[in-house]
Amino acid sequence: MGLRELKMERTRQLIADKAFQLFTEQGFDGTTVEQIAAAAEVGPRTLYRYFPTKETLIVNFVETHLFAALDRMREQPDDLPVAEALYALVDSVITSTAVHESRVLAIYELAERTPSVQAQFSGIWHRWRTAVADEVSRRCKRRGSDMAASLAAATVSFVIDVSVHAWVESGGKANMRQLANRALELLRNGEVPFATPASKR
């Protein structure tokens, strides 16, 4: 990364940090773009170059770490079993959450009270699941794997979502890895009920 890119990344991080500080203190709706720009010592136009909307100041963090987790999965050897490559993805999300505990807790609290943020999160999760399914399909290299790949991506997505929500509800006190591993164990052991067509009589 060159000096210019490094300075831009530092500015981006500073703006995001100041925004979260203000959102936590004043609430999302009670904080203006002008206040965030002033706190970060940049102009509003500069802020908009980094974050086109106020919502992206929150969701960009989640998007960055979700797709970083996908990159980790892509880095796994192609001959590694797909299930293990998928766990590398889950593990990356767990690690990111542990490193940024306070930020993740703040994000979920803000999202809970802000419908516009929730809507953008839905879009991010959809794009991410599609990208994960594409990677699973590429690794499977067999015809008719598209539905299986989509189900694998959706399952991993829900495991992460359920585990993070349980962790957030504990106030960040629960062990995130244990929660995720327990969710995966429930799926492997067949303890999660699935819809089954009624038997033909």
Describe how the helices and strands are arranged.
Blueprint: H1 3-26, H2 33-40, H3 44-50, H4 56-75, H5 82-99, H6 101-113, H7 115-140, H8 146-169, H9 176-188
Helix pairs in contact: 1-2, 4-5, 4-7, 5-8, 6-7, 7-8, 8-9
Overall pLDDT score? 91
The counted number of beta strands is 0
Cα distance, first to last residue? 66 Å
Q: How many H/I helices? A: 9
Which percent range fits the helix content?
over 70%
Give short descriptive properties of this protein:
globular; 201 residues; 76% helix
Summary of the model, kept short:
The chain is mostly helical. It has helices spanning 3-26, 33-40, 44-50, 56-75, 82-99, 101-113, 115-140, 146-169, 176-188.
Describe this structure in words.
With 201 residues, the chain is mostly helical. It has nine helices and no strands. It has helices spanning 3-26, 33-40, 44-50, 56-75, 82-99, 101-113, 115-140, 146-169, 176-188. The mean pLDDT is 91.
